[in-house]
Amino acid sequence: MSRPNRKGLNLHRLLLLAAPVLLTAAEGTPQITFDKDVAPILYSHCVVCHHANDIAPMSLVTYQEVRPWAAAIRQAVVQRIMPPWHADPHIGEYINDSRLSEADMATIDAWVKSGAMEGSKEDLPPAPQFNNGWHIKPDLILTIPEQTVAAANQDDYEYIYVPTNFQEDRWIQAAEVVPGDRRVVHHATVSVIAADKVPIGKKAGENLGPFEFRTGQVNHLKPDAPVSDDGCATSTVPGLESFSSGYVNHVPGIYLPGHLAEVRPPGYALKIPAGSYLQFQVHYSNRLKETVTDRTSIGLVFAKEPVTHEVAQYEIWNNYFLIPPSDSAHKVTSCFTLPKDVTVVAYTAHMHFRGKSMTTEAIYPDGRHEVIFNVPKYDFRWQETYFLKHQFLMPKGTKLVTTAYFDNSVNNPLNPDATKAVRWGEPSNEEMMGFWLAYADDVPQKPAEPSSGLESKQ
Ligand code: HEC
Question: CATH says 140-456 is which class?
Fold first, then answer.
């Protein structure tokens, strides 16, 4: 192809940017140092994950912590492996785009090449403070009762209901789900559910679809269920209206691999109606040899400004695919037509270990086609939600066509088993094909939440 080699281009620009700095250093003017030049970059782009007891394996806060990693940091940064970011930068602009600027990359590159010097302490900015695992400042924390996670139980989906006891509707601007024990909480999704929908004496996961079956605490698609990789095809299967499904979910917060707190743009908030419960769907995966306990929490930040938009999300799925063994690029599609006008806020791609790429195209009622979202190299370990810098109106009748590719070959290092035909299932070694579109509806004249201190509830 005639496209320029992006990596080559970046490196070239990097060298151009870095050169003047190195020259001045050679002339005896100040060196690039950790304290003055590098710490500010790490503090704003890295330490959110790279601090003690967070998701990254090492802390990158002090010079002593960073120095042994200097070469690895340079490599991870120059190759754009870190900070993790998987959306195609040519499609859409995102508020939470964590990619480093070329100038910051050049600074790190030049710092490492010139000996990774410390510098002087008076140049060092104060390190960001982290508050017991929270990356936001919650007004309210709701925590599940203690759960026992048996040794070696890797596929345990629990549904736990926590009352909010809200006397009135509350508006949530930001939320974060923090696992009690990160070693065993694989993911956790918190949804709003009305009190009269809370299943009493029954687990939500036991509501099986027509072609599903259950083992232990997880659901799967039956091996002989209807097959359609084309989610846009018309179903002629009795009892199955269509191969794609799209439903509305009200999700204040989610903990997925690599997923940070959900901070919505000012004026955009999620409503939790008075009296609602929060449903915590927690996927426990305990690879340890011991039984442990967990108390996962959600922290909520109430909207402090007038709410102009209420957010919710469409979760769009094709659950009827079949990925043959050894197929390195198996195509699966889903289709969903918007039943109303919505303001588009964010996108999330959700697949498991065999997920390779995902693209969503909008076909507008006037016939125009537009690729709105592209994750060219999906990585199960990083499931970011991409918040749009410019929300836009998507009219009723817009058809969303999502195309995913799965790599079920031995060349996929994450593939648990290339010899298996794979269908839909909750365990990570089975698959899912989901595109989630967070959207907003206008809320005329919503008053701001009264500001409140931390009302902690355990
Ligand atoms: C969203 C969280 C997150 C952010 C932001 C982040 N990292 Fe990481 N980083 C991780 C996790 C988790 C790992 C370990 C998993 C892995 O290696 O894929 C990691 C691994 C690394 C590694 C080790 C790679 C190797 O060779 O094994 C380096 C070096 C690194 N990060 C540097 C950085 C730097 C520098 C930044 C900022 C420019 C940064 N990271 C931003 C989460 C993060």
Answer: mainly beta
